[in-house]
Amino acid sequence: MPVIEVDGLVKSYDGKVVVDGVSFSVEEGEIFAILGPNGAGKSTTVESIAGLRTPDSGRIRVFGFDPLEDRAQVRSRLGVQLQESRFQDRVKAAEVVETFAALYPDPLDVSSLLERLGLSDKADTRYARLSGGQQQRLSIAVALVGRPRAVILDELTTGLDPQARRETWGLVEELRDSGVTILLVTHFMEEAERLADRLALIDAGRLVALDTPQGLIDSVGLEQRIRFTTAETVEDDWLRHLPEVSGISRSHGEIVVTGDKRLLFSVVSLLASHGIVPARFQVDQTTLDDAFVAMTGRRLATADEESG
Amino acid sequence: MSAIAALAKTQSKVFLREPAAVFFGVVFPAVLLVVIGFAFPNATDPVADFGGRSLVDVYAPTAIVLGLATTAIFLFPVALGGDRERGILRRLSTTPVHPRALVVAHLAVQLVVVTVASVAAVLIGKLVFGIAFPASLGWFIVSFALGAVSLLAVGLLIGAFAPTASSGQGIGMLVYFPTLFFAGVYVPLQVMPEGVRTISSYTPAGAAVQALSDSWAGGVHPTSGLLVMAAYAIVAGSLAVRLFRWD
């Protein structure tokens, strides 16, 4: 049985459809990402799963329970870290977690949870004096303290610097390895690419694709691209005769070759057969962002744009 | 119950870490009484206009209601708006405990705060100025309890929909300053024009001051004041419960 099932979810506000017939299921033990641009309907989808919104239509099950009908059953099994969720400025880190621990029947030990999240030395620090990364880890601690079997992490790393973001990613992987199923919501393609076992691509309220990150990239069948420079002469004709090559261009002394997925091997073989060792050689990876552009005609935000 | 207790414990710590809240919510009524008592000459002498009571006598119930209003109408909506703004109410909605537990915890902390502030004011009045303890202690306690509940209900109603801490403060202030006026903070009720005093008697703060004064002096049952306060408590309280926004 899937941990989370969403079937035909529809939700609109003021006559505007925000989520339009989204269906997917999250299997036990995986990191499942919902990826899409801001305003795509990601948060509305997970808030419906958490029982905070009433869908217009569609069926949602969490561990087989209806989030609206069986509130207690869902809330005791599902941890939720909401987007833009903060705590009071003057409450200390450990007090936040202890308070939330008291709301669950069988909570985790607070001090070992803080230690696991690297917050032991901040236990007595007031919330307002924690860094953005520490506040986010505290929010994860609150989502975990009730011993959930699945957690929703909504825009976990938005606003974090790259270092804190990488640390947080490490935590999410550790969490998955400890057996917790994770539903991750993000608009950073790097985050989904790095963490997700499978992902749902959502745009304008609709499910655009549902696959593994690599499967999604492969499915759009984008060309490979290789760039290299060399002091030696490389004739265009040599490359053009390779069946894998579909295009050649030169700019600023750099040779750019495009073609299908066997391109790398054939270009390297060609250069080797002429005894040429390129000065610089680079394979452009097709990214989720490229796949998203191919499917929707628009770009996702990258982490650097967001934090810069 | 343990959830509410845990939330109340945390909220009381947070309250004690807020120096302005502690000063204005807990200490200020007693301080105000001391200032009035020492700033005005003959503040403890009987005054004919006050029915033979002293300025400190008539000001003591006002100081108590000032403390109630500060906590209930000035500070409480800020706390609720802040909890809503920070997503704390929404976040509690994802736990097995309903976010109303946090509201109940706030109310519990505030009942303790206003009680401590009022006992302090009564004791300061007694120890520093030698004013009498309330003659009808039972009615005094009932008057105080209804005053606290009715003003907290008004604060709860403001905090029921305030989307942020600053909006809670803005709306709270619009209600707070007239409340202080009707409680006789600026001008004692006894010297207000008859019409203004009548209006005051239909506000929760004015009714509370009147009921506390009557039971302090003894001899008169503060029935009408109690009814006014009960009406505010029921109307504002049930509106607040109905309108409360949990996200």
Would you kindly provide a written description of the structure presented here, covering whatever features stand out?
The complex is a heterodimer of chains A (308) and B (247). With 308 residues, chain A is of the alpha/beta class. Chain A is 33% helix and 27% strand. Chain A is built from 12 helices and 13 strands. Chain A has helices at 42-49, 71-75, 93-101, 110-116, 132-144, 162-177, 189-195, 213-219, 236-240, 263-273, 288-296, 303-307; strands spanning 4-13, 16-26, 31-35, 57-62, 78-81, 150-154, 181-186, 198-203, 206-211, 224-229, 245-251, 254-259, 280-284. In chain A, strand 11 (245-251) and strand 12 form a beta hairpin. The longest helix of chain A has 16 residues, at 162-177. The radius of gyration of chain A is 23 Å and the shape is elongated. By secondary structure, chain B is mainly alpha-helical. Helix content of chain B is 77%, strand content 0%. Chain B is built from 10 helices and no strands. Chain B starts with a helix and ends with a helix. Classes of the chains: A alpha/beta (308), B mainly alpha (247). At the A-B interface, strand 5 and helix 3 of A face helix 1 and helix 4 of B.
Query: How many β-strand stretches of chain A?
Result: 13
Helix content of chain A: 25-40%
Helical amount among residues of chain B, as a percent range?
over 70%
Molecular shape of chain A? elongated
Largest interface: A-B, 30 and 26 residues
Q: What string, H for helix and E for strand, traces the elements of chain B in order? A: HHHHHHHHHH
Report the sheet with the most strands of chain A, covering strand number, pairing sense and barrel closure: 6 strands, mixed
On the 0 to 100 scale, the average pLDDT of chain B is: 94
